[in-house]
Design brief:
- The complex is a heterodimer of chains A (104) and B (384).
- Chain A is 17% helix and 23% strand.
- Chain A is α+β, with helices and mostly antiparallel strands and 104 residues long.
- In chain A, the strands form 2 sheets. A 5-stranded mixed β-sheet of chain A has the order 2-1-7-4-5. Chain A has a two-stranded antiparallel sheet with strand order 3-6.
- In chain A, strand 1 and strand 2 form a beta hairpin.
- The longest helix of chain A is centred in the N-terminal third of the chain and has 7 residues.
- Chain B contains 14 helices and 11 strands.
- In chain B, strand 4 and strand 5 form a beta hairpin.
- The longest helix of chain B is centred in the middle third of the chain and has 21 residues.
- The chains are: A alpha+beta (104), B alpha+beta (384).
- Chains A and B meet through helix 3 of A and helix 2, helix 12 and helix 14 of B.
């Protein structure tokens, strides 16, 4: 089962072993500060905004058109931005590291 | 007025296809209304051009006659807006606490049990108003008995009956709550605002009343109308109750879809500090534009079959709770209530017979829209 590490805004690292499912849901289950997933994963709220560490960008994939639409007016969007509800943690992503993006 | 209106009707369909903006007016004031998803979101983020720093003029129509205070934090701009908002955010996030969610669940269980045991129930007055009011006591961490006073205010504090008189009664009530909390401080919303600091000073009574005003007026008819629309829709679609019963994981996406289609707040205003133009519509300095949340949520460029309720719609980038810094403070509460309501209805209710109904209809110069019910008399049948 893959491992994922979240780095929160205050620099704390939350490492989750044997993780499965959507990145947003994994963050909620492990009380990762700054990830709320308010809309439950339908790309409406952007409260699961993360930055994918550069080494992982190609494997995690680019943001979809809908993600980009929702992040387009977010002051904190970068080219590493993704919504955690749109990333399914697979074996290929074992070791993934993401940073929790700041909020307005 | 069309003879038979339905909350799923989209009165903006033709106008939105033609142009991103509808040049309309409200009470004689020319206000261009943005209709398309992208245009609304773009304007919602551009607070320097489209400002909320406009006491009593953010709602359309404006509320200069029904309240004396500026509402906080909604009628302020960044960066002050963020500082004000932080003062109350912990209360508005309370439904995320398991014990608060458990109280919401228990309240809905009780109200639903009573409704199922009755021959008929009037959903607006006897179900949605008490549900919204009593759940709000959990949010504000005050005695549940306070809800009795709030229930007496009806569906909307300002827009129903004698708005001026009722607005003034609510302000007096809030003032007395802040004074009582100052005498005997507790862990409640009123005590917290008495103690809160903004830019190194305590809040003024005017600011505190402004927070309370938004809290009581903003999340009231919106939650109540959403509840009545959902229940009426289930009445017409009993198969959806069964589907959710078999797929409880779909409750969350179903609720987001209900928020998208039934959004009670058709639009909200912004004031233009400088003369400007929005998609060809000219606005004078001090004039207003309207952010058409409802119309944006039915934009066919973003939502396939936009007037259909699809309980598994995903993605669903609706803007029912607004967009940007001002996104709805009460969204967490609304979601907690609706998810619990929809889940419990799917578990306990077999069918809903609509015995009588009267729509709540916005009647404006260029559109009519049914955004809820003034009356919804139903009979609920228990499952099994």
């Amino acid at each position: 089962m893959p491992k994922v590490t979240f780095i929160t805004q205050d620099g704390a690292e939350v490492a989750v072993e044997d993780a499965a499912g959507l990145l947003m849901e994994i963050a909620l289950e492990n009380d990762v500060e700054g990830i709320d997933g308010d809309c439950g994963g339908v790309c409406s709220c952007s409260t699961c905004h993360v930055y994918v560490k550069p080494d992982w960008l190609s494997r995690a994939g680019q943001a979809t058109e809908t993600e980009n639409d929702i992040l387009a007016y977010n002051d904190h969007q970068t080219d590493r931005s993704r919504l955690g509800c749109q990333i399914e943690l697979t074996e290929e992503l074992d070791g993934l590291v993401v940073e929790v993006a700041p909020r307005d | 007025m069309p003879t038979k209106m339905n909350p799923l009707d989209d009165p903006f369909e033709a106008a939105r296809r033609k142009c991103p903006v509808l040049e309309t007016e409200f009470q004689g004031e020319k206000i261009p209304m943005l209709l398309r998803h992208g245009a609304v979101r773009e304007a919602a983020k551009d607070w320097e051009r489209f400002s909320s720093d406009a006491p009593r003029r953010v709602p359309i129509p404006s509320e200069e006659n029904v309240r004396s205070v500026r509402q906080y934090p909604i009628e302020t701009d960044p960066p002050e807006h963020g500082e004000y908002r932080k003062l109350v955010e912990p209360f508005f996030r309370r439904p995320r606490q398991p014990e608060v969610q458990a109280r919401i669940d228990a309240l809905i269980q009780q109200l639903l049990g009573e409704a199922l045991a009755s021959d008929e129930v009037e959903i607006v007055r006897d179900f949605a108003v008490p549900l919204q009011s009593r759940a709000l006591t959990y949010l504000l961490n005050v005695d549940e008995k306070e809800a009795e006073t709030w229930i007496s205010w009806g569906v909307h504090v300002f827009k129903e009956g004698d708005g001026e008189g009722k607005g003034s009664i609510m302000e007096q009530y809030c003032r007395s709550m802040f004074e009582a909390a100052a005498e005997t401080p507790g862990e409640d919303f009123f005590s917290a605002l008495n103690e809160a600091e903004f830019q190194g000073r305590r809040l003024t009574m005017e600011e505190k009343l402004g927070f309370a005003n938004l809290t009581f007026a903003g999340g009231r008819d919106t939650v109540i109308h959403t509840i009545s629309c959902i229940i009426a829709w289930f009445g017409e679609h009993p198969e959806a109750l069964e589907r959710l019963r078999e797929n409880p994981n779909e409750v969350t996406t179903a609720c987001e879809e209900f928020f998208r289609v039934f959004i009670p707040l058709t639009h909200i205003g912004r004031v233009c500090p400088h003369a400007t133009e929005v998609h060809g519509a000219k606005v004078e300095a001090g004039g207003r534009i309207s952010l058409g949340w409802f119309a944006a949520n039915r934009d066919p460029e973003v939502f396939e079959d936009p007037n259909e309720v699809k309980t598994d719609r995903k993605p669903n980038p609706h803007i029912a709770f607004g967009f940007g810094a001002h996104n709805c403070l009460g969204a967490t509460h609304a979601r907690a209530i609706m998810r619990s309501l929809v889940r419990q209805m799917s578990e306990k209710v077999a069918a809903i017979e609509i015995l009588d109904s009267a729509g709540s209809v916005e009647h404006e110069r260029d559109y009519w829209r049914m955004n809820g019910y003034d009356r919804l008399l139903v009979k609920l049948s228990r499952l099994g």
